[in-house]
Design a protein that fits this description.
alpha/beta, 10-stranded mixed beta sheet, 3-stranded antiparallel beta sheet, 13 strands, 15% strand, disordered N terminus, binds iron/sulfur cluster
Length: 439
């Protein structure tokens, strides 16, 4: 960084088998009891904090838990656990909002929220196939903070600060050495680049978490982007609706509503994260004209079963959030203990497709190392391809023939037949034009 400012319903035909279901304990019940859980947490640990403060995102942000000494207030830690956690957090720091901590069931050692925020010694057991930047994000900025690899879109990184530091984060290398926010001069340089490049029609504002910036500062960026005629859509990648939903207040929503179309991608991983507060935050965004999509990460011991993914996707839809991506966990150092097999991801999609509505089925995606780009991975439904028909199986295993209209050409597409040679060429070009679009 050049310049910085410090600052189931388990179904009988579950393809994963019963052993893969419920690995992180129960899928919790409906929001009202979670509301009670939050109330109990507040009474126990923050009895003097008023509703006004608790619901004020500034208070939540200011009172983040950022040390093992503080987290020991909430969990009983043996001397050894304390020491281990302290040494992990010296490498990969810790941060959690009081709100997100209140979602933990403290009687469940494998609580899915706890596992996402508590330092674990497994983070220091680096695997040879992992590295700090598997997607090759470094050295790809056209100006500091701006990534331009795909022809028509750019990623703008405004800060690396997040209210909760997720143990599975792809960008651990960024925040492990402390927080920064790009200066106004650096943001101006990003905006100048966007103005000068009319091919850019889509700007993704990412981080860290861009909603960490004040609403007025965020507005100055959005209004500058909206003054660029060729910028058609703006996307914001943020985990605030999940970890600090109080941030999605009227002031923010009124501001966002002025600069649409804006799309917001958030990051729920488990149904226990969908609370009444969180639902209200998503509802406010949607009412302000901001569609909300979810990008979850497949995490061993947290959400690696059909039952949990199905519950998550159903609850997302009930909250007006579209399940968009289910990411295979990237090969990032310090996240190895969360990695699942690709078969697990494919099995989850197979357990959803056909058993619930298509809207509730996310795209299972692998973000290929070295900037290879995102590819979707699907269960194999096409059993055989013949000259004039495909042999296809459906979700129940029925085998059905489908007539292929031979000779039909795709209008407006110059590549009608993709052979190995042209595919290799296309891959080569694509690799030179990749962008990483993540929250
Ligand atoms: S960038 Fe996203 S995944 Fe990483 S710590 Fe921040 S919110 Fe979590």
């Amino acid at each position: 960084m050049t310049t910085t400012e410090k600052n189931e319903n388990k179904q009988s035909d579950d393809p994963l088998g019963s052993g893969a279901v419920e690995t992180c304990g129960k899928v919790d019940d409906e929001p009202p009891s979670r509301l009670n859980q939050t109330k109990k947490f507040r009474l126990k640990y923050f009895p003097k904090v008023s509703d006004q403060d608790w619901n004020d995102w500034h208070w939540q942000f200011k009172n983040r838990v950022t040390s093992v000494a503080e987290i020991a207030r909430f969990f009983h830690l043996s001397a050894e656990e304390y020491r281990d956690m302290d040494s992990v957090s010296a490498v990969f720091p810790l941060s959690a909002t009081p709100y997100y901590l209140s979602l933990i069931d403290f009687d469940n050692v494998n609580d899915p929220v706890k596992l996402q925020l508590m330092p674990d010694t497994a983070e220091l057991c680096f695997d040879a196939h992992c590295c700090s930047d598997p997607l090759g994000e470094e050295h790809s900025s056209v100006v500091p903070g701006l990534v331009h690899r795909y022809p028509d879109r750019v990623v703008m990184v405004l800060t690396d600060i997040c209210p909760v530091l997720c143990r599975h984060c792809t960008r651990k290398r960024e925040w492990k050495n402390g927080g920064w926010v790009h200066t106004q001069a650096e943001i101006d340089a990003m905006l100048a680049y966007i103005r000068q490049n009319p091919v850019i029609r889509d700007v993704i504002i990412s981080g860290g978490d861009p909603l960490t910036l004040s609403t007025s500062r965020l507005e100055s960026v959005l209004s500058a982007l909206r003054s660029v005629p060729h910028v058609e859509i703006i996307r914001i990648g943020t985990r605030y609706p999940v970890v600090l939903p109080q941030r999605i207040d009227d002031e923010l929503c009124n501001m966002l509503s002025k600069y649409g179309p804006i799309w917001l991608n958030t990051h729920y991983n488990h149904p226990n994260e969908i609370t009444e507060e969180s639902r209200r935050a998503c509802d406010r965004l949607v009412r302000a004209g901001v569609p909300v999509n979810n990008q979850s990460v497949l995490l061993k011991g947290i959400n690696d079963s059909v039952a949990i993914q199905k519950s998550l996707c159903h609850k997302l839809l009930m909250s007006k959030v579209r399940p968009y991506y289910l990411f295979q966990c990237d090969n990032v150092q310090g996240t190895e203990h969360f990695h699942t097999t690709i078969e697990t991801g494919v099995g989850i999609i197979e357990g959803l497709r056909g058993y619930t509505s298509g809207l509730a089925v996310p795209n299972y995606v692998i973000d290929l190392p070295g900037g290879g780009g995102k590819i979707t991975v699907q269960p194999d439904y096409v059993l055989d391809k013949q000259a004039d028909e495909y042999i296809i199986r459906n979700y129940k295993g029925d085998i059905i023939r489908f007539k292929n209209p031979v000779g039909h050409k795709v209008l407006g597409n110059n590549v009608n037949t993709v052979n190995v040679k042209t595919a290799a060429k296309i891959n080569g070009e694509a690799n030179a034009n990749r962008a990483v679009i993540r929250s």
